[in-house]
Write a structure and sequence with these properties.
alpha+beta; three-stranded antiparallel beta sheet; 9 strands; 2 helices
Length: 95
């Protein structure tokens, strides 16, 4: 779902890793965003509105009727020198 909504920071699967019989974790990667800093909440809100999402009563949570996206706060969203926004970590569920 992340790759559908945020293709500029799409995840790619590389392998599975784990510890002998205890757990298995996917190994994923995203493109590096150079010269970036945390986006402001206003930048995030504006970006999500441009993607067709509406803010909910909870800061950093958005919905478009198909997907609900949350945890979009400055520590999880970057802005580059040109003002482009990159979501690097978000929680997403299908509504």
């Amino acid at each position: 779902m992340h790759n559908i909504i945020f293709p500029d920071t799409s995840y790619s699967f590389h392998a599975f890793a784990g510890f002998d019989g205890r757990n298995v974790q996917p190994v994923i990667a995203q493109p590096r965003v150079a010269n970036a800093q945390p986006a402001t909440q206003i930048m995030i809100d504006t970006y999500m509105a441009a993607l067709g999402f509406e803010e909910t009563a909870i800061e950093g949570r958005f919905s478009n009727g198909t997907y609900e996206v949350w945890d979009l706060v400055p520590r999880n969203v970057l802005a580059d020198n040109e003002g482009d926004i990159y979501v690097v970590d978000a929680e997403i569920r299908q509504v």
